[in-house]
Write a structure and sequence with these properties.
Length: 176
């Protein structure tokens, strides 16, 4: 699958980049070192530009493999990275995926997550013909809970995350 850009209203969604024109790596390192980010996204540690470059390359490979659609949430006039949104665990045959979002500390509290997840859902249901999208977040992550509610997900249960030591809330949204 080829990456696509999406106009998300006040922001635009584009592929993560690390090139001579736009380099998201420093902002990725900064975001992934934030204590709130580390609490809710425990699986990744990006402490160097090299590690951030590998992360960007991984997201590009996932697009090509059709397993994940991942977008940088970008400020429209500068292209600055404000976060990342995606559809992971994409299964086109089953018509399912899972939404994922994180927002850089300087972008939190501005509705960026809701706009970005909404745009990713429209792409998933429209362009990919998904039937349902799941969304999971730590029970204590109130920002993610608000995104789920604002984007029309329905709470369907809880799941214990052994590595995190807390419960995830599990939501779903069906194609309309």
């Amino acid at each position: 699958m080829e990456p696509v850009e999406i106009n998300a209203g006040a922001y635009y969604l584009r592929q993560l980049r690390a090139d001579d024109r736009l380099d998201d790596r420093p902002t990725l390192v900064e975001a992934f070192e934030d204590p709130v980010h580390r609490r809710f996204v425990p699986n990744y540690r990006l402490q160097t530009l090299e590690a951030a470059g590998e992360y960007v390359a991984r997201r590009s490979r996932e697009w090509a493999e059709g397993t994940r659609c991942s977008w940088a949430i970008a400020e429209p006039t500068t292209g600055d990275l404000l976060g990342e949104v995606g559809l992971k665990r994409v299964d086109l045959e089953a018509g399912t995926a899972e939404a994922a979002i994180w927002v850089h500390p300087r972008g939190r509290g501005q509705g960026i997550g809701t706009l970005a997840v909404g745009a990713a859902l429209r792409f998933g249901f429209g362009a990919l013909d998904l039937k349902s999208v799941e969304y999971r977040h730590a029970e204590t992550n109130k920002a993610s809970e608000k995104i789920a509610q604002r984007c029309g997900f329905t709470l369907i249960g809880e799941a214990v995350v052994p590595t995190a030591g807390e419960k995830d809330l599990v939501w779903t949204k069906e194609a309309e």
